[in-house]
Amino acid sequence: MTKTKLQQYFPIIRTREQILLEIKCNPALNVWFETLSEDSKKEFLDICSGEKGVKILYDSFFKSVMNPEVYPERLQDMLSCILGEEIASFHVLESSSFALGDERSLLILDIIVELIEGSIINLEVQKIGFDFPGERAACYASDLTLRQYARAKRAATEKPETDPGHKFSYRSIHPVYTIVLIEKSSSIFTNFPDTYIHRFSQKSDTGLHMNLLHNYIFIPLDIFRKKLQNKDISTRLDAWLMFLSTDEPDEIMHLCDAFPSFKELYLHIYEICKNMEDVMGIFSEALAEMDRNTVDYMIDTLRKNNEQLQGKNEQLQGENEKLREEIARMREELEKYKN
Fold first, then answer.
1. Structure-derived torsion over alpha carbons of residues 33, 34, 35, 41, reported in degrees to the nearest 10
2. 85: containing domain
3. CB count, 10 Å around CB of 71?
4. Which of 129, 233, 269, 333 is least surrounded, with the fewest CB atoms within 10 Å of its CB?
5. Is the distance from CB of 113 to CB of 68 less than 8 angstroms?
6. Does pTM top 0.90 for this prediction?
7. Could you tell me if 207 and 67 lie in one domain?
């Protein structure tokens, strides 16, 4: 029985035969497994047996491995690499109740943490990049800023007016960082095929400095993969992005050799894979999510195409109206000439 590359690297991974035997011996697992398409069966077995790597951005895998309340040091390290500066300890905030109406299932996950000095980081992972990513990110950043404002105002009103240290001050409102990881980028990012990190902050054109609070980082992971193809992973940031974006066994082993601390994260994942019922739940959620994403993407594409056709139709109608007017004018001129 030939072991897969990842089975040789991570002996904890079971063989395909062992996995199939467990499925057949468990009636509930067997019924679920037989409902899958042949492609889905193969993908499930490939993941569990190490024929392919686990897709870290499956919602449940990511939340288990990167749970900021259980493993804060992991998320802290990743955020420090993305921001380019060491961040202090943080605590997790509730996700915002604010939501744009057309988002549905394209957003894989959303984590909001507050640093010890007060800055807030909103980390999002998107399956497919949204239309108007800048406008959308600005709306969410504004919501987090207003949450800070409301909290500072409430704290000021709850303290005695005689205590000057608790008067409201806009200095109580701290910077907001919006970090967006995109699994499949939209055209706005693919127009920059050599760049996989886009950082935005608000600056004046005169050199005047104001603390305008909002900062944005967009990372299209598919562009990162293409850019880094056949190249060594040279930085810890590259290592994190590779961890998030690859399911190729050779790349996973190369990552663990270059940055051994990631081996612990993969061992965590393969511990989860030992429990077939847990993996069944994760895989079912992922399939349902992919189905919703596909439907939503198709609906959005059809809507855009329809809007484009309507626009072209209106343009043609306008041109047709102008042509009719020109013909009528020419007829009038011809009648004058005849008379």
1. 60
2. 56-274
3. 16
4. 333
5. yes
6. no
7. yes
SS3 12: coil
Q: Is residue 146 part of a domain?
A: yes
CB atoms closer than 10 angstroms to residue 220: 29
Q: Measure Cα distances from 209 to 85, 152, 292 in Å.
A: 21, 24, 45
> Which candidate, 115, 109, 66, 125, places its Cα nearest to that of 92?
115
pLDDT in tens, the chain (339 residues): 567 899 999 999 999 999 999 999 999 889 988 988 898 889 889 988 999 998 888 777 888 898 888 899 999 999 999 999 998 888 888 876 555 544 444 556 788 999 988 999 999 888 777 667 888 889 889 999 999 999 888 888 876 555 555 688 888 899 999 999 998 888 889 899 999 999 999 889 999 999 899 999 999 999 999 988 867 888 999 999 999 999 999 999 999 999 999 999 999 999 988 888 888 887 777 666 654 544 445 445 555 556 666 766 677 777 777 888 777 777 776 666 655
Please tell me the distance from the alpha carbon of residue 325 to that of residue 207, in angstroms, as a whole number.
Answer: 55
Q: Assess whether 36 and 62 both reside in one domain.
A: no
Q: How far apart are CA 339 and CA 323, in angstroms?
A: 24
Where does a domain end: 243, 274, 305? 274
AA letter at 74: R
C-alpha 291, offset from chain centre? 17
Residues 191 and 46 grouped into a single domain: no
Q: Where are the alpha helices (DSSP H) in 84-191?
A: 133-158, 187-190
d(CA 174, CA 212): 9
**Tokens of residue 72, six digits:** 């804060």
